[in-house]
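Colleagues,

For the teaching module next term, I've prepared a clean inverse folding example: a structure given as tokens, and then the sequence designed for it. I'd like students to try predicting residues themselves before seeing the answer, so please don't circulate the second half yet.
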């Protein structure tokens, strides 16, 4: 394994609640060993990216009720291809070479898992998606 790959694996947080067993599919194993740790590492970046997304879309997000904010996030992650590709790139860019080779064999199914995890991370941190201070005064 090269230095880049070793460094990438070392920087990923451990997720204690993940249990790996023989009954898991290859996709589940990849999700739990690769996608979840990378997503956890990238949460602060995902939050800033979404704030920027909201800003570029006229800050409509900040005027919505909590229920509508949830729908807005779900919709944006699922349907806005520019946002979706950007978020995917933030995850894929932290794959090792070996992980990337596994990913490209079943990228469609793994992309669905990846976007679900990213969406869940944003929803789980929705309280951090408040109106930026520079907008609060407006």
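(Answer key — instructors only)
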């Amino acid at each position: 394994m090269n230095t880049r790959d070793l460094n990438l694996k070392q920087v990923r947080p451990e997720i204690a609640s993940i249990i790996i067993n023989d009954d898991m599919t290859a996709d589940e194993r990849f999700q739990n060993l690769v996608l979840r740790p990378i997503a956890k590492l990238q949460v602060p970046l995902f939050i800033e990216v979404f704030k920027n997304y909201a800003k570029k879309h006229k800050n409509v997000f900040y005027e919505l009720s909590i229920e509508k904010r949830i729908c807005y996030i779900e919709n944006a992650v699922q349907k806005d291809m520019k946002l979706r590709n950007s978020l995917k790139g933030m995850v894929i860019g932290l794959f090792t070479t070996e992980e990337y080779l596994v990913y490209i064999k079943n990228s469609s199914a793994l992309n669905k898992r990846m976007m679900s995890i990213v969406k869940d991370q944003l929803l789980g941190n929705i309280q951090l998606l408040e109106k930026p201070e520079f907008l609060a005064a407006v």
